[in-house]
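Q: I'm building a small set of examples for a reading group on sequence design. Run inverse folding on the following structure and report the sequence directly after it, with nothing in between.
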């Protein structure tokens, strides 16, 4: 076997123990995975089953259109970075964003506040005189 990792004994030294070879390869792979993840800034997603997420839509969304879908519930975690959503689709965590869930009561209260009429009086803003008027006398 030809690899950068010296796992087999030299020719003529005897038999090699396969379990020791597997363990050595596993240790080396784990070390390289930790190194690569640290360099790339990789992290595990923090989504839990029952949490709400939004799906990032296509890269080029037209101006004024939403970049994320409506909130969807996470049913379960399928793989390390793969989640099954309530719409039945599997998504990688790179395409998901955490969404704090609004309850139905909160959204109804929000609608009620917008429907009520408020007597709004426009307040005039305070304005300073321009600096160049200091030297001139205004009558």
């Amino acid at each position: 076997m030809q690899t950068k990792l010296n796992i087999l004994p030299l020719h003529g030294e005897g038999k090699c123990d396969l379990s020791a070879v597997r363990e050595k390869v596993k240790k080396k792979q784990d070390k390289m995975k930790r190194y690569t993840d640290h360099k790339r800034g990789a992290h595990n997603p923090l989504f839990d089953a029952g949490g709400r997420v939004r799906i990032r839509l296509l890269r080029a969304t037209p101006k004024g259109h939403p970049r994320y879908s409506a909130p969807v519930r996470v049913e379960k975690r399928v793989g390390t970075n793969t989640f099954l959503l309530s719409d039945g689709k599997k998504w990688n965590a790179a395409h998901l964003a955490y969404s704090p869930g609004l309850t139905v009561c909160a959204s109804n209260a929000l609608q009620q506040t917008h429907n009520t009429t408020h007597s709004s009086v426009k307040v005039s803003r305070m304005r300073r005189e321009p600096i160049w008027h200091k030297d001139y006398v205004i009558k």
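Residues 103-116 have pLDDT under 50 and may be disordered.
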